Amino acid sequence: MIQLTDIQEARRRIEGRLKRTPLVTSEALSRRIGANVYLKLELFQKTGSFKPRGAFNKALSIPEDRRGRGLVAVSGGNHAQAVAYVAGQLGLPSVILMPETTPRNYLDATRGYGAEVVLMPNAQAAFERIAAYEEQGWTSIHPFDDPLVMAGQGTVGLEIIEDLPSVTDVIVSIGGGGFIGGVAVAVKSLKPDVRVWGVETEGADAMAKALKAGKPVRLEAITSIARTLGAPSVSETTLQMAQGYLESVTVVPDSDAIVALRLLLERAKVLAEPAASCTLAAAEKLRGSFSPSSNVVLVLCGGNVAVEDVCRFQT
What we know:
2 domains; Rossmann fold; six-stranded mixed β-sheet; single chain; alpha/beta
């Protein structure tokens, strides 16, 4: 597993290429939760999510003469845009293998960053296909199961500790587990008493099922609207990190994530995707674990949701 030094080195490597996103407080949400609530606005990051942190750290760790034909990745969400963006910034071509069910806004954005999009029947077929690209000399970047990717994502945790040294709790959503793993390593290495809480939505709860089974469990299908949490399974490494660092994983229904999405839009004036707004839904369920003196950070990891989808969401 990664160490604090890996995350610190990642920050040095990617410095100047990405934004240091704001950490802001919300009086309305603080009153609602009964604690001091802060929002880590990572949805203001380049491409609208935290993903370029890990993609840049991975790509920049590969010597230029070994980057081959370019970058290739599998993603139906934010990782796709991140790899396409990183490739463009480094002057490399990119190919993204995306499930046929990927929303149009993700397809359009990924192509807009210059990537060639190859549609596949599903995520599993896409991952099976990526080996053929690697054999042809393409460098693949895994969405979560790569120590360099995890270390890059963990730089969010460094920023939280620096901007709010008195933080007591951090709530992070889980897809494959690389993001929360990196953040947890950074946070708990610097402040061991800080509690890190995971959250998933029903129908995209691979980590909760893995924790219950004691081993990675493959989901038959991703049925949640929080598509960017839609990893078919976590990895052995991310499961071990969750077992070692997390207080718990709260699973919330889509309806709660939608209510939280609307609340964040109305009160905080930010449009978070359901994979990010679910952190507020989890905070509602966890409020009994907080006190008025608790300093709770909700990591809003992404904001790539189409307005027309928001209008169709039903609670």
